[in-house]
Amino acid sequence: MLPVNSGSHTAYQNFVLENLRIYYPDPTVFSKSVWDIIERFWLLDLSYTDELLRSKYSVLGPKPRTPSCMQCSYLLSIDFKILSLPDWAAQLKIPPLYAILSVFPFGDTPRVGTFYDFFHRLWDSDPDNLSPHIHPVKKKKVKKPKSKGTKADSIESITVEQLFQSLEASSFSIDDQPYASLFKIYTHEFLTLSVSKGLIDTSKLSIAGDCTPVVTSARERKHRICKCADNGITDCGCGRFFSQPDCDIGWDSSRDCFYYGYDLYILVAANSESDLPVFPLLNPASKHDSHGFLETYFRFQSFLSDFHVSKWLLDSAHDAMPYWTAG
Ligand SMILES: [Zn+2]
To answer: Which burial class, exposed, middle or buried, applies to 98 when counting CB atoms under 10 A from its CB (0-12, 13-18, 19+)?
Structure first.
């Protein structure tokens, strides 16, 4: 069956109000921080997610969980700092509050697999990753910088100028990206709302760009798929199987350590309240800032073409000639 959202955001508010009255007649049981979360979700209208994902469900079979409820519940797990999905699925069964705010009847909450199924529907591509699982080991590795608190040197195979020219000649369409649905949800439910409330002025943006490490596992997971080692060749150049092929090893300059995962490059509106996010992009952890910025910038320009930037705020890691000449 197709998912049903009866009555959009007002239905959400009515459900929450009704159930809070039943399970929590004394409002003082919640701390201020819990009330802050309740208030945020009370105002957060996620009904567009149901509209967008409708076509991704089958008309046959059992009635699925409402996509906006799954999204709401996942966002709640982040706010309540229960960051493991199995833990969250277990917690949904214990205090009624989590189920109520997710709009699940208390005692009838989704299992962890339902969350994975929901995430699968958010991704617009058959492969789960952008890169293939099997690829050769990178010859160049990020090296530990000589002094503390500094960023690692670039190991990119092309110069900033070459990357700039190749990206300038490329065209990006959001509908071709595996993250198209995620981007549409983000713009529709968050970014456009910030613009319509006057929190972000798209006619004269001051954009700051920087990256932050996203750790996905404690170590790199890869294994051989060739027989070379059996024949005594241990340093062959054959491809290896990587469990997370879009991730690699990078240097976290603020914690002075190597890490495995992504480099999240994020553009924020520096002239808005609280530096609101405008456009994020995940790159492999080894991506140098000067390259990460360009990858992000050209996509930002294509996907949010009505955003006009008057000022760029970037740190010294971005100090490369094409930035000055392009400005
Ligand atoms: Zn081999």
So the answer is: buried
Q: How far is the CA of 143 from the centre of ligand 1 (A)?
A: 25
CA of 19 to the centre of ligand 1 (A): 61
Distance 186 CA to ligand 1 centre (A): 43
Q: Which two tokens stand for residue 97?
A: 């509050």
β strands within 120-234, DSSP E: 134-135, 205-217, 222-224
Q: What pLDDT, in 10s, does the model give residues 8-54?
A: 889 999 999 999 999 999 989 999 999 999 999 999 999 999 999 99
In sequence order, which residues have a C-beta less than 8 Å from that of residue 270 and are 6 or more positions away? Answer: 206, 207, 208, 311, 313
For residues 19 and 49, what is the distance between their CA atoms, to the nearest angstrom?
23
DSSP helix/strand/coil, 90? helix
β partners of residue 259: 250
Tell how far the Cα of 46 is from the centroid of ligand 1, in angstroms: 49
pLDDT at position 62 is: 83
For 134-184, write each residue's pLDDT tens digit. Answer: 998 888 888 888 888 888 888 887 888 899 999 999 999 999 999 999 999
